[in-house]
Design goal:
Blueprint lengths: L2 H17 L10 H23 L6 H29 L5 H19 L18
Length: 129
């Protein structure tokens, strides 16, 4: 290698290092780090946009809404046997009891639903929702 070629190679190396495209220090790959940072920033902005468009909500808020809706539906379901008994006096006590058991079964199934049953992954406990 001639002195000119060595000088050109050395200057090229300095340019790459200065531009952040090459680094020998502790194996730091600035290109990969910049790409990772850009991805994280894009993810954060996308999440902020979803919150702004009201496409996302905190888990605790959704939990409260579903709990209130479940309580209202439960009240409606519990009133069905009494309403049927009043409107249909011809129903026997056994018929009303059968209806009551079926309503209770449906209510218990709804109360026991989990995210796994819905095919939704539960959020990690360590990460804030």
């Amino acid at each position: 290698m001639t002195g000119r070629q060595m000088l050109l190679a050395y200057c090229g190396h300095l340019r790459e290092t200065a531009a952040g495209r090459a680094s020998e220090e502790e194996g730091l790959d600035l290109i990969a780090e910049r790409a990772r940072l850009a991805k994280e920033q894009a993810d954060r902005i996308a999440l902020q946009n979803e919150v702004t468009r009201r496409e996302l909500a905190p888990v605790h808020l959704i939990e409260q809404v579903l709990s209130q809706a479940g309580a209202r539906v439960s009240g409606i379901l519990e009133a069905i046997p009494g309403m049927l008994k009043r409107r249909l006096p011809s129903l026997s006590a056994d018929d009303v009891e059968l209806i009551t058991r079926e309503v209770a079964k449906a209510r218990n199934i709804a109360a026991a639903v989990t995210l796994d049953d819905l095919g939704i992954e539960a959020p990690d406990e360590e990460e804030p929702a």
